[in-house]
Amino acid sequence: MRVQVGIIGGGPAGLLLSQILHRAGVDNVVLEARSRAYVLSRIRAGVLEWGSVEVLRSAGIGERMDREGHVHDGTGIAWSGRGRFFIDTRKYAGKPMMAYGQTNITEDLFAARDAMGGLVIDEAEDVTPHELNGERPYLSYRKHGETQRIDCDFIAGCDGFHGVSRSVIPASVLHTVEKLYPFGWLGVLSETPPLEEIVYARHARGFALASQRNPMLSRYYIQCPLDTQIEDWPDDKFWAELKARFPPELADRIVTGPSIEKSIAPLRSFVAEPMRYGRLFLAGDAAHIVPPTGAKGLNLAISDVFYLSRALIAHYRGNDGYLERYSDMALRRVWGAARFSWWLTLLLHRFPDQTEFDERARESELDYLARSEHAQRSLCEQYAGLPFED
Questions:
Q1: Residue among 205, 139, 132, 163 at smallest CA distance from 10
Q2: Closest listed residue to residue 120, CA positions, set 231, 8, 44
Q3: 42 falls in which pLDDT band (50, 70, 90)?
Q4: Residue ranges with strand state E in 225-310
Q5: 3-state SS assignment for residue 265
Q6: Are 154 and 281 in contact (CB under 8 A)?
Q7: Nearest C-alpha neighbor of 170 from the set 280, 331, 268
Q8: Which of these, 10, 53, 80, 156, is most buried using a 10 Å CB contact count?
Q9: Is the pTM of this model over 0.70?
């Protein structure tokens, strides 16, 4: 097979890149190691920056999102013993946010690729990029026991943190930076009406989050130790702990019900640079991971795809400027999101080794945020997402 762009990874980053390139006349193929059912079973992020909403609309997959997504003006922060304030992104950044689950986006992308006749090869085993520094890179993989080859001009590595793409970049070229946090998030998905707004809670017992997917689907999280076992957290225990971490007026409004999914996610910050090696370009979790506190993971993947698709389309129209600048441009946004997510994680969580000074300093910073419009404007600008670079 011969295509212009070979894409490794059939999650939202790879599928969105495929969709945008196809609409621009750039032929491509997506290779995914897992089955479609497995990809669609993964429960991930659900808060979209408005820039991400516009990218999805321009890719032709905004109809269901605009119908079912919940547009809101920002996020609340609550903490014990103090009032609650609102991160008003519409007021201070001129942009709202949207709650729309990553699973829904992936479903929309699969439907769009199918409707356009896009080629997505799932359950592709042993996917391997070759000849990345040459003029004729190619991909090999196995399907039904037979080895296949795809020749291409470029390869996009959109296969996540544990994928093959980053691993083929020589250690002498690739530089990685990582920070591991001493806790995780225990998350529950329930078919219950969510709170009217997304709310972060900081409490002496630990962080909690009330999020939303649609009018009858809620997502809740509590901070937990890394050695937490899901079987030790039946639904009743989870709901009791969640409500204990919210102020009473909010806890009373949380509608409980049977969980339909429960999982534990460790928190880490990770950046790999550069995001290009020869004819290979990294995008999404293959290049970076951020704590979910800042709601940046999916949005960063979408911004990577925006930059990379623009660069590849421009190349086929005779302009390589964006292609040469892709890694530097993407990494500026990555590091901005990594810093913001790290800061918000430090502010809202309890750390096992924190001192009384640490606690009082965080309380003072929250008080400052609550009373300073300048501080809230800075917070909202970063939370809502900075504009894409030209």
A1: 163
A2: 8
A3: confident
A4: 259-273, 276-277, 280-282, 288-289
A5: strand
A6: yes
A7: 280
A8: 156
A9: yes
User: What does 26-44 look like in DSSP terms, one character per residue?
Assistant: --EEEE-SS-HHHHHH---
Give the mean pLDDT of 318-331.
Answer: 97
CA distance 103 to 208: 22
Say how far apart CA 72 and CA 81 lie, in whole Å.
26
What are the backbone dihedrals phi and psi of residue 2, each rounded to the nearest 5 degrees, phi first? -130, 120
Q: What is the DSSP string of 190-219?
A: ESSPPPSSEEEEE-TT--EEEEEEETTEEE
Q: How far apart are CA 31 and CA 160, in angstroms?
A: 13
Helices 321-348, 373-384: axis angle to 10 degrees equals 130
Q: Which residue has the tokens 């370009």?
A: 281
Instruction: Rounding to the nearest 10 degrees, give the CA dihedral for residues 333, 336, 337, 343.
Output: 180
- The DSSP 8-state label assigned to residue 72 in this structure reads E
* CB environment 249-277: b (16+ within 10 A), e (fewer): ebbeebebeebeebebeebebbbbbbbbb
For residue 80, the 8-state DSSP code is: T
| Four-point Cα dihedral 100, 105, 111, 112, nearest 10 | 110
pLDDT, tens digit, 9 for 90 and up, residues 336-375 = 999 999 999 999 999 999 999 999 999 899 889 988 999 9
For the chain, domains (ranges, CATH) are 5-70+99-178+268-348 (3.50.50.60), 181-266+351-384 (3.30.9.10)
Catalytic residues: 72, 200, 292, 296, 383
